Amino acid sequence: MSTKMTFRVKMALYGVVLLVAMLLDGAVFGALNLRYSPSVMPIAVACIGLWEGIEKGGIFGLAGGCLWAWSTALSMYGAWRILVLTMVGLAAGLLAERFLLQGWKTALSISLPALVVTDGFYAIFLSLSGTLPPGAFFNEFLPRCLISLVFCGVFYPVTRYISRIGGFHG
Q1: Which terminus of the chain has fewer Cβ atoms in its 10 Å neighbourhood, N or C?
Q2: Cα distances (angstroms) measured from residue 121 to each of 38, 110, 151
Q3: Domain regions of the chain by residue span
């Protein structure tokens, strides 16, 4: 295949990863009435940014944020998701390109702050405004965050193998 075709296949497969993450977030865990439903989209965006760098990580963060926001009722939280997932993709790409090695530890160390920024700050804001009880951050968010980190073990190898299409660069 030509280099343009391999690039298109690679980007299409990353798009499929984002669609799978959106379906897991909305259709699977949204339909199962679990006490702690994981948040999968920030993990997928962080893993894509880890392998693809700043520019493509930001683009896929924006695409993932739009998919994630538009899969639910539009609100200020949807706008927060778009903004924060774009920043997560940019930050993951920047950290992986400039400062950290591309590996499991880096994927976990990028995914945890991604979850804290996307869901944790919003939970703190809701707790401070009185919408959520004060202990909801520790009782609801932290277990949800730990369950979400399990999906780093799913998205990390998938995005690693996709990044090898057309030559491995990491």
Answers
A1: N
A2: 16, 16, 21
A3: 3-163
Hunting for tokens 């391999």 — which residue is that? Answer: 6
Q: What is the pTM of this model?
A: 0.87
CATH assignment, 3-163: 1.10.1760
Half-sphere exposure in the Cβ direction for 6 (13 Å, CA): 10
The CA distance from 74 to 139, in Å, is 26
Among candidates 19, 8, 126, 127, which has minimal Cα distance to 75? 126
Q: Using an 8 Å Cβ cutoff, are 91 and 61 in contact?
A: no
Decide: helix, strand or coil at residue 132: coil
Summarised one tens digit per residue, pLDDT across range 124-167 is: 777 788 887 877 777 778 888 888 888 888 999 999 899 888 76
